Amino acid sequence: MERLPRGRHGLSREFVAQNQRERLLAALAECLHERGYDGTTVSMVGKRAGVSKSDFYKQFESKDACFLAAYDDSVERIRELMLAACAESDDWADGVFAALASLLGFLASEPAQAQLVLVEGLRAGRGVYDRYQEALQSFVPRLRDGAPAPAGSEPPPPATDEAVVGGIASLLARRVLAGEAEKLAEFLPEIAEFALTPYLGAAEARRIISER
Question: Which residue has the higher pLDDT, 122 or 55?
Fold first, then answer.
């Protein structure tokens, strides 16, 4: 986010406040990426965002409150990207593949956001962990909707959807912790096979991925 011009600029208070809020959220993610949750302070975030400490506290009552807002904002951005990508296809497998491609592309281009959602969200306390679980659960019905069963088999049990969503999050978190956030898009075939195999079978999942 670019800083606003100094002095008189004719911008409304609402616009200035929203701009400051967005800069603070972005700055928090960057500080977390560099220093982790415990090493990040309000002063660091404000300095990175170009927002005074007093203005920070006009937006958020604490670092924790800023973190929750940044976390929720990032999760919503990811949800919108994935749903938009999925909506472009009428085929379930194509939609899942497209949604995963958009997810990995976003995280690879925004490593600080990847760190925020996949790593720091598990370190910042019970309240954020609950949000993390809620975010994962929100993707479960999207995966189940329209999912086929492997040829000649019964549909996988409902717990499969949760296992796939949670497994993908775990796989990506390990990559981020290993310093590979910027390479996440390279793991699309591996992640897509993991997601599709329980519903299509290994051979069909690999065939679909090989054609992408």
Answer: 55
